[in-house]
Design brief:
- The chain has 129 residues and is α+β, with helices and mostly antiparallel strands.
- It is 18% helix and 52% strand.
- It has three helices and six strands; from the N terminus they run ααββαββββ.
- It has a six-stranded mixed beta sheet with strand order 2-1-6-5-4-3, covered by helices on one side.
- The mean pLDDT is 82.
Length: 129
């Protein structure tokens, strides 16, 4: 949830610090996979207008039904549903659901604390609207 708040309200570039050095972000529906902080940083710069979440326009992530399963002292898995709301100029600035799906996460404990080692982003319906 910290990732959604930081990405929506602060800098998408700060989201990168929540990943391990070799962290993976992937989405089967987008046929996309990025591995390591450098690749994830490059993607965030493109997605968020050079890292500025506010420059992208009004949007919010809503994350719910979060489940964390601790495997051992250094590893855990997570699951959550998500919805992404984006401003629609045709509705006088009201936000509407742009897409939704689920996160499948793998966490690893590091010297900096718990970090995402892998996030699989599945989009409901299998494709973007």
């Amino acid at each position: 949830m910290q990732m959604a708040r930081i990405g929506d309200l602060e800098s998408a570039l700060a989201v990168i610090d929540l990943y391990t050095e070799d962290g993976i972000w992937e989405s089967p529906q987008l046929n996309a996979r990025r591995e390591g902080k450098a690749a994830n940083l490059q993607f965030s710069r493109q997605l968020y207008v050079d890292g500025d979440a506010k420059a992208r326009g009004a949007h919010r992530h809503f994350v719910s039904n979060v489940q964390i399963d601790v495997e051992d002292a250094e590893n855990a898995t997570g699951f959550a549903y998500w919805m992404f709301y984006q401003e629609n100029s045709s509705t006088l600035g009201l936000k509407e659901i742009a897409m939704m799906g689920q996160y499948k996460d793998r966490f690893r404990k590091t010297a900096e604390g718990w970090r995402l080692a892998r996030r699989i982003v599945e989009i409901a319906g299998g494709a973007l609207p």
